[in-house]
Structures are given as C-alpha cells and as structure tokens.
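The methods section describes the discrete structure representation at length, but only in general terms. Since the whole study asks how a given chain folds, the encoding of that fold should be made plain. An entry of this sort, consisting of the sequence and the corresponding backbone structure tokens, reads as follows:

. . .
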Amino acid sequence: MSADIDAQLLQGHWTHSYEESENDRIVFRSSDYDFPRSRGRSSIILGPDGVILTEYPGPTDRVTRATGDWSLEGNLLTMNGPMWSGPFEVEAVDEHMLVINKR
C-alpha cells in the first residue's frame, strides 16, 4: 500500500515535461525549470482551495486558461479540468517534480 501524499507538496504551478513522460506516466516540472524550447506546453496550477487552473496552447498558439477542481485521497489525485481529467496515482512529488500515473 502506498503512503499518503502531503497535499501541500502538490500545490503550485506545474508544467508538463512531455520529453520525460511516456505512456500513462506523466512528468511535470516546477514553473522555474529550464525547459528546452518548445512551441507550447500545458501546465496546471493546483490551488490550496481545491481549484485547478489549466493552461494550454490554444488554436492560435496563445495560452488558453480554464478552471476545474482537484482532490487528493491517500496517493490518488483526481483532477477535473480541461486537458487533465480523471484519477491519477502520485508516483513522486517534491518541490521540483511531480510524477503521476493515469489510472
């Protein structure tokens, strides 16, 4: 059985590192990470109030923003928002990286 995750570690601005992600394993990096150049990246901001803000490239390459909600039970992160929706198992989290697995 997996250990419970501290919800405070999840809170913050996370940017999808698609270079490190594969299949159902999704890697996010903190917003200050030095990513290689990219045409656009999606990101999530997990707020302390259970609100998620998603940011992603829109049809004209401008950032599109939308809100939803998130919750954590044990190590199960549930996100309900555009681009990122459903249950995810938190594999690892620290101040620099968040790794989740689609269930």
